[in-house]
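Render this sequence as a predicted structure.
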Amino acid sequence: MRIVCLVFATIMLLPLHAEIIYTIPQGYTKVAIAAASSDIEPTITGISVTLLNDLEFASSATINSDYDADPADGTQTLAITGQNWSQDQWTEQPHLAYITDADGAEEAFLISSNTSNGQLTLLTTFDLLGDKDSETPGVQNRFPSATTVKIRGANTIGSIFSSKIDEFSPDDRVFVWDGSEWLSFQKNGFGNWVLASNLFGNENGTVIFPDEGMFISRSATSAIELTLFGEVPAVPQISTITKTKLLSSRIPVETTLAGLGLNDDLWKSDDRLYIWNGSSWDAYLVNGFGNWAPASNQFGNSNTLPIAANTAIFVNRETEVSGAEGIIAAPLPYDPLSE
């Protein structure tokens, strides 16, 4: 069971750039990791972290036209106004830069470096100024060059599970999809999260991006309840899915399959969503009527299928699309300005 408490409290926040004032809705969610069925039957639970970490900086920004395309670590820089930073202030601990698009939605990118004179370097697999649809040159850019940026701490595998680390068994596993395979993490004898292939390492600082889901294989016969605190998303949260991804639900309340915002003009008939039902994957596709349907019944309609808060959905695009074309930004199913 997932318990959600959203407190839409009006707080006047004056970050470092004092001209920007935000209303910050706060809340918490309780996410249950299911107990193993028996000592020899582990249970799988899909989760995601949908609340945001505290806002540490906000300002206007200019995206520079300097995308450096590297398959492993492409980068792009932003020029920031109103900053008062030290060199690499935002990389001593991992931080994310949330950039706002022309529709008011935002997407998070990992900060790889910053200068003391207001330049941020972000890791990105695509040009932030590229067209949304490469087949229609001249359409609206992926992001406008003049935009806003918000900086927040990144969640890591260590920070997400730190309050409950003692309840995890050495036989429990956390699985994260890296785009091509599952990475398996476990707790070692020192209480650190490590890759199962290197028990003497330390992966506590591995970043779990806001649009990433995780699968937990629980071997102990007791459940674990995580209490996750943070800021409730007040604008739609963008995910970019170019091929395969374990996707976060992005919002801390229940939604529907149609409400995930995945079915756009670029979605193909061979693309699939997979939802874990507690024991196996249920597959869904977009049918000829433009509805979500079970892969086993293409004439069905699963648009209203409930998607639990803080869950994870496996997405597979049969044909890879560009980063600029992979945008997903579902509208919020609540009013963030209500009190």
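Summary. The two ends are 25 Å apart (CA to CA). The CA atoms of residues 264 and 328 lie 8 Å apart.
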